[in-house]
Design a protein that fits this description.
The structure is a homodimer. Chain A is of the alpha/beta class. Chain A has ten helices and nine strands. The two termini of chain A are about 35 Å apart. The interface between A and B is large, with 50 and 50 residues.
Chain lengths: ~300, ~300
């Protein structure tokens, strides 16, 4: 049985002892894990913490504004970094899933390194959780926020990493969030991968392709919000397919809709979404995004597939 | 109102007048259209006709044997041509849908040209139907069996083409088949494209990829045969996705299942197949084909998509 209050008590003390009055930044993407980690450290060290939101150009529609507003409402000092060009440059020409993850990770840590130099800090907080560590160590996929566990010394980037949630699984992270008094829109938030939409554009990642999958994601979220599923999102294929738009043959884009039920992301079931909802999503995506001619629904559990495509 | 008997009467007379006692071959793939056309010409000229089955390596599991047996049972003289190597060579390196269709068409007509020289014939029968002509002329997609309607003279290949069904739509073709006394397994057969599985392997077509989609097709047909839908098949993506097999991360293949209801293939609805059936298909495909980690279901109507992916 996980004792939430006791965990928080211990974590606050440990964080204070580690940080020891120095300045610290927290990489906050707006997801459950990084926001809970940020808020926990804020509780521990208050004004010594600056939350950093890196706009990598790969976030969902409205997400940068949402994160900035959330941090402000929570009384956390924050810094916004527009790194869109740099991330797209780092991803250019990369088509393999692991290569893309590594390019994202490299750019992510370098960007944090620049901020830490600028702000003269020694510590960076990350929302790494147990599942990230397990999956990276087992070679399922290399999570962007797992370094030391696979032998990469974060000091090469110029800072030490604090991971207050690295022993917790997702349901426990949510319990900590609730106990800390985070608003529901954060503590109950759907999981969203660190490398964001870059994993949901198969093949090379470009601003144009991210814009397509961002719009598709918005439609999927709007139409399935009431299903209360574990995750629901859209993926843009690199493959193309024939279709007909305005009576003409076109060779257009394919979007897959992925919706799953899960407890902890370790295993997952493809949700049996009512066809009425699926057809509405298909009609909206092909109707509202000019280049998309085809919509697919993922019917695979994890295993044998993973939740994300990359 | 289509008058089946009258159509057949006229067609038989016209075919006899055209062929005029000479030798003729018919390109029979085993599909409804080409088999009905072949049987019609057989009725008209009997032993003057030789049905030719070209094994292009792109047919479904057991299909070559099925076609040979069917022709034998119908009392039609036939010739089997193993052209697998040549077709794969023609498709090598081609990734664009239209390029692949053109490569298939070229190889198809050249192969027929060789047979026609060998057998010293002047006429080739084809099962072109009205929808093929309309789609090719409108530029929706170039059907492999439409030449003269887009300005290509078949005599460059060394023969003249007879297309007895070119004014009919699919339901009328089936009526003709029934009236001629073809067995139900032919007259009620699901449509299958001329270029066969080459259109159901996105990207470059190789024998290995055709083997994967052939196995997936067999599973889809076995699990959905009772649905009585217009078409049901599998498509192999060129894109790959992450998955987990035997506890290890793999970067594997993606199969899409496509099942539609339609009258005439001009428009179509994605069939709302019960989830129990879809999940069974997904489990079988990912379980029985080692390289496949993910199964998708196409939820798009035609338009805006087409029935086939290419």
């Amino acid at each position: 049985m996980f004792e939430t209050k006791k965990f928080i008590e211990n974590a606050l003390e440990e964080i204070r002892n580690t940080v020891c009055g120095k300045k610290v930044i927290s990489a906050c993407s707006g997801g459950v894990d990084s926001t809970v980690a940020t808020f926990l450290v804020h509780k521990a060290v208050g004004e010594k913490l600056t939350a950093v939101f890196i706009d990598d150009g790969l976030r969902r529609e409205g997400e940068p504004e949402f994160v900035v507003k959330t941090l402000k409402n929570l009384g956390i000092k924050s810094k916004f970094i527009d790194a869109r060009k740099g991330f797209f440059a780092a991803l250019k020409g990369k088509t393999d899933a692991e290569e893309k993850r590594k390019a994202f990770r490299e750019k992510f840590y370098k960007t944090l390194g620049e901020v830490s130099k600028e702000l003269k800090i020694e510590f960076i907080v990350q929302g790494t959780i147990k599942a990230d560590v397990i999956e990276t160590v087992k070679g399922i996929k290399s999570q962007h926020n797992v370094l030391e566990q696979i032998g990469i010394d974060s000091q090469m980037y110029g800072y030490k990493i604090i991971e207050p949630l690295k022993e917790l699984f997702k349901p426990e992270v949510r319990k900590v969030g609730r106990e800390l008094g985070l608003p529901k829109e954060i503590s109950e938030r759907m999981p969203f991968p660190g490398p964001a939409l870059s994993l949901r554009v198969l093949g090379e990642v470009t601003p144009e392709k991210v814009a397509i999958v961002r719009k598709a994601t918005e439609i999927v979220e709007a139409e399935t919000g009431e299903l209360k599923t574990f995750q629901n999102f859209a993926v843009l294929h690199n493959d193309k397919a024939t279709g007909i738009k305005n009576g003409n043959r076109v060779y257009g884009n394919i979007i897959t809709v992925r919706i799953v039920d899960s407890e902890d992301a370790v295993t997952a079931k493809a949700t049996q979404v009512p066809y009425q909802t699926l057809m509405k999503i298909s009609e909206r995506i092909t109707g509202e995004i000019p280049s998309v001619v085809r919509c697919l629904y993922d019917i695979t559990d994890k295993p044998p597939s993973t939740i994300e495509f990359e």
